[in-house]
Amino acid sequence: MTDDDLCHSDATDLAARIRRRELSAREVVRAHLDRIDRVNPAINAVVTLDPEGALAAAAAADEHLARGGEAGPLHGLPIAFKDTHLTRGMRTTHGSPLHATDVPDHDELLVERIRAAGAIRIGKTNVPEFAAGSHTYNPVFGTTRNPYDPTRSAGGSSGGAAAALAAGLQPLADGSDMGGSLRNPASFCNVVGLRPTPGRVPTETGSNLWDTLAVAGPMGRTVADTALLLSVMAGPDPRSPISLEEPGSAFRTVRERDLTGLRVAWAPDLGGRVPVDPEVLAVLAPQLRVFEELGCRIEEACPELDAAEDVFRTLRAHEFALGLGDTLDASRDALKASIVWNVEEGRRLTGPDLARATAAHSRLHLAAVDFFSRYDVLLAPVSQVAPFDAELEYPQVIAGQAQHTYLDWMRSAYFVSVLGAPALSVPAGFTPEGLPVGMQIVGAPRAERTLLEVGAAYEAATGHGLRRPGLPVA
């Protein structure tokens, strides 16, 4: 096995081989650092790197095993954390010049859990400024580019994470998702991304711990790898008032299931609510045959989403005003225009506006629960477009319809966010230009296991995720 083969190996396989001492953590970390050195300049996915610290940690991991110590589920696996997640002793910039030299004095909870499971921190992955928007560029590090076509976007806000996974720079990746920030880059980069049920992965950071729009979650090149990382990230914590009690270890092993009789709803444009480029639908529509051949019963149907636009826009704007209002007052000129607009939208909200959105949010959740009593999963596009020109801030037109803000083109993802349901992005094929397209599989609230099992069965039947990018190396 060459180093490049090793870097594209499944995380579950790598972890098992390290535990059996067929591979050392040093070998695995060194191979990934070498690949980052050769490949990362073309895509700019990893933006902070600590090779010396990573190799020292890998040596300590090997010595721990040699002494007969127990190995955690991620023992020896290298990971670069999303640059919005606090990492002790390593800068966390949030993609903003205002934080370009910030070095936290502690790991936030999800980082702490991943490292406690044995993962080796190698660096940080790129994000949009303050993780705002589904295209990864910022004034600190520049633009992350798509490994399948470096002229195209890698998506966002977990774009650096998804690009690093696809390019073999790391075997697993953490991310977060408010309006599609795990699902969109997974779709754009031909990897797997899971937006969990709110509370599944607890968080103790941010200005509103009761928020259910923004969640943290895992990414991997396979469904099984994604489940492995979820098993480490998930589980209750008293600092998170919405955390779910089920232990993360319940997701440690997920295999494809028999889909005979599975009740599947298909909503190609979410009930006529979103425009979708024909090239995306041309990839996704034939995938229904795969589900039919696996024994599923498919109907065209969509949950109630009429209030989704107002709910998402209102609650997001409120969160932006809450989290970034002071920053706007102190450093308006240091913020990109889209963030200024979103914060100001939040400041224009009234108490009745928030009350209306909160009540509608509750109704949407109840409607979703009712919908998923009749269907096991919902299939829909992850993104309304294929990866677009990386020089744009966002797509200007979709299927002939103008997109006026940096949020408009993300509706296929953020309409799902407000349901309180988990959603999985799985590779579903490629456009004629060779650009990846993902399928969004949505399940009932707290039904992550069902999603992962369905995704694993679809993945095994198609193999779309096996296609790797042909990146130039230095």
Automatic annotation (TrEMBL):
<dbReference type="InterPro" id="IPR036928">
    <property type="entry name" value="AS_sf"/>
</dbReference>
<dbReference type="InterPro" id="IPR020556">
    <property type="entry name" value="Amidase_CS"/>
</dbReference>
<dbReference type="InterPro" id="IPR000120">
    <property type="entry name" value="Amidase"/>
</dbReference>
<feature type="domain" description="Amidase">
    <location>
        <begin position="27"/>
        <end position="452"/>
    </location>
</feature>
<dbReference type="GO" id="GO:0003824">
    <property type="term" value="F:catalytic activity"/>
</dbReference>
<dbReference type="Pfam" id="PF01425">
    <property type="entry name" value="Amidase"/>
</dbReference>
<dbReference type="InterPro" id="IPR023631">
    <property type="entry name" value="Amidase_dom"/>
</dbReference>
<protein>
    <submittedName>
        <fullName>Amidase</fullName>
    </submittedName>
</protein>
